[in-house]
Hints:
Blueprint: E1 2-7, E2 13-18, E3 33-40, E4 62-64, E5 71-77, E6 87-92, E7 99-105, E8 108-109, E9 112-116, E10 125-134, E11 137-140, E12 144-149, E13 154-158, E14 179-186, E15 192-198, E16 214-215, E17 223-227, E18 233-243, E19 248-257, E20 277-281, E21 287-291, E22 301-303, E23 317-321, E24 333-337, E25 347-350, E26 365-366, E27 373-374, E28 380-381, E29 392-397, E30 411-415, E31 418-423, E32 433-436, E33 446-449, E34 459-465, E35 471-476, E36 496-498, E37 508-513, E38 522-526, E39 531-536, E40 539-546
Parallel strand pairs: 4-12, 27-32
Antiparallel strand pairs: 1-2, 3-5, 5-9, 6-7, 6-10, 8-9, 10-11, 10-12, 13-14, 14-17, 15-16, 15-18, 18-19, 20-21, 21-22, 23-24, 24-25, 25-26, 27-28, 29-30, 30-31, 31-32, 33-34, 34-35, 35-36, 37-38, 38-39, 39-40
Amino acid sequence: MLSTTRLLAAGGVLTLAVGLATAPSASAATGLTYSNPRATPTPSNYLGVQTDACDSTTTPQWIRNTGETPTLSVNVNVPAGVTTVPTISVTDETTAPFTSAFQAAAPVVNGIASVQVPNLKDGHSYSWRAWSVTGGMPSASAKCHFRVDTTLPTVSVSSTDFPASGSGLTPTKYAGQTGTFVINGSDAASGIACYYVSLQATPGFGGGCSGPNAVKPGPDGSATIQLKPTDWGSNILQVEADDVAGNATRYQYSFYAPSNPHPPQALGDIDNDGVPDILLPDAAGNLQVISGGSGTTTPTTVIPAGNAPGGAGWTNIELSHRGWSNTAPADTVFARNLASVATRGGVYVYRNQGTPGIESGRQATSAGKPSSCQDLTGATITCPADVAWSGADQMVALGPVDPQAPTAPSLLAVEHGDLWLFAHGDLLWGEENATKLTTAANWAGYDLIAPGPDAQGNLALWARDRATGELHAYPLPKKADGTIDFSALADPTAHVVASGFTTAAYPTLGSSGDLNGDGTPDLYGVTADRHLVTFSGWSNPKDLGALQ
């Protein structure tokens, strides 16, 4: 008589006695010996844990729906002259008393005994072993365990903010506004492990419920999520329900997001929620859109690395945004690939209606560079030798500078140590004016930061001295005719307002405008250990936590 004690998943401790046939004592023959008992497919779970649980302590895992009948196999050493055929027995241990579920002879072929086990019941727990009796001497393999879940989970989605297409219900929210979606799912055997959700064209599912778009359900299997459909018109929310066994069901929820007739407008905002956004790459090269008013580092949108210019990620992409055309009420985003001299010669322009075209992988247009140049008086001057944008050491979107186009973007660049403004025209066609703002060629050692206008509409340029860590704030007030006074830019060493912003402390320093709604633009920085820090103006730092 062999016995084993097992702690079941339900918490009870049961003792199972398995009797092996014995014969009267006779001359003891050498019996079969067993090793490596295993099930195919290997019992596993959604985390990727695989185990045959051939002991009394390991938690049994699941045989899920693979479309194949499970096979139980064991290596068998057969001594010379022994003709015993092993038996494989399967016991249903779901509830006491345990019952036999399957038993069959398993002839040894090439040192392996195998049987297929049909008709296993969904949600049941099983143990199994191979055994034999040779010359009255019993022998057996270790007893292994598994559970069965071959039924796919069910999943559905509902929303009163954005009802399902064809439901006859009217949406109560607009594109660019956050709506509530309720996911309901069930799985009787192993239970729902998580849901994956995506409004993007190519969803990223899988990853052991740890990905950025994974949502854990509550005790009843449901999950309530907040999502912002940025594109007006028809949208598809893609959901995958994964159960603990690793079975998956995909579901598409189609809905309509109407265009907002009165969208909020705020410089620095790219998703039409009226709050400026911070754009930063994550550790994997994806681009994170972080709402400046959220108080956390959790992105509202993650734009895949493959959507970046060149397709190699956003880490080396110089991004700036401040202003839009009349047809696009959210910031136009400018992107330049700094990976090489060749790639930095192109400026990609993403005009959007509350979603940067980069989010859905839309084709960007290119910003042309004008071939004629002028000074601050409007007199024609010789343009730099670099016709392409590759001559710009750095570039920022300064903000609106044209009194005739109060939301139109402009670009400010450092070329050969001087500041050049590209504005008052169409950046797509190179028809804007190229204006040389400085002449002393002494701006090469500064990081430009464009905070945008304050509540009164006055612009400024901030700059970090890379050698000292000093922060400069140069006022760019409006003149009586509505044009901008750039005289403060003549001396980059002037207008020091703060210190301590070294490149070691803050490798990244920038501004997306007024983050806290007090009417004054705010600074943000990323520390060496990738923490996002925001400031009120340039003081009172607030650590929002680690970036992804």
